[in-house]
Amino acid sequence: MSAPPKTVLQATPEEEAAIRAAVRKAEGRTVAGPQHVGGLFDLLSDPQVSDPIYDLPRPITRESMAAYVAENEALRQEGRAILAVNLDEAGRISGYSHFAIWPERASGELAGARRADLQNSGQGRQGVAHSVAWMFEVLGLRLIGLTAALDNVRSAKAIEGAGFKRMGEVESVRPDGTTRRSLYWELTRDEWRMRHRL
User: Fold this and answer.
1) Helix (H) or strand (E) holding 109
2) Model pTM?
3) By the 8 A CB rule, do 97 and 41 touch?
4) What is the separation of C-alpha 143 from the centre of its chain, rounded to a whole number of angstroms?
5) How many CB atoms lie within 10 A of CB 62?
6) What would the pLDDT profile of 128-140 be if each residue is shown by its tens digit?
7) Which of 66, 98, 111, 187 has its CA 20 to 30 A from that of 139?
């Protein structure tokens, strides 16, 4: 799992319990299960989709995807992560979202991608905005931190379009222990609500 946001919040015991329960429930999301392993492998085998994402297991194989799904299901039961898939009209995986959650800090992180043929359609910004709203309103988080590779212009535009404040750079650590310098943003629930009241 990736690192929590730079800003440190402290959740009350009640708030932490409510976040864990909401993560376990994952209301409104299609949680990835064993039946999605093949589709995730097909999606993430495309370097256009997976190369910019630092926290995916490498190499991407059916076995590593099966382990990724199982690991995230165990974390979901702890109230710490959700691996969700989006399906197109034909029932194929068109994208995925990974929600890393720190319930004790009322904080989270979002990663994800869309199939290459669906990229550059302008829907990435809409997808980020929808996921952020869900994290704040359904999961009950108060802070979201996001990262993107220094050269990932498309993600940076989507993140900034959703209202996140750029807060410099961080060293992101991949599952294999290697690092990547990343741009870093944060957004609080209060900031998000203020933006969406106007």
Assistant:
1) strand 107-114
2) 0.92
3) no
4) 13
5) 13
6) 888 999 999 999 9
7) 66
What whole-number distance in Å separates Cα of residue 57 and Cα of residue 14?
33
Tell me the H-state helices in the chain. Answer: 13-25, 37-44, 47-50, 62-77, 123-137, 153-161, 189-197
81-87 and 93-102 beta bridge pairing: antiparallel
Residue 198 pLDDT greater than 60, yes or no:
no
Strand partners, 101: 108
Q: Which of 7, 2, 3, 29 is nearest to 142 (CA)?
A: 7
Cβ contacts of 48 within 8 Å, gap of 6 or more: 116, 119
Token pair listed for 124: 């990435």
Q: Determine the Cα–Cα distance for residues 112 and 37; give it in Å rounded to an integer.
A: 16
| Span 155-174, pLDDT tens digits | 888 888 888 999 999 988 77
For 142-180, the DSSP string reads SEEEEEEETT-HHHHHHHHHTTPEEEEEEEEE-TTS-EE
DSSP 8-state code for residue 59 = S
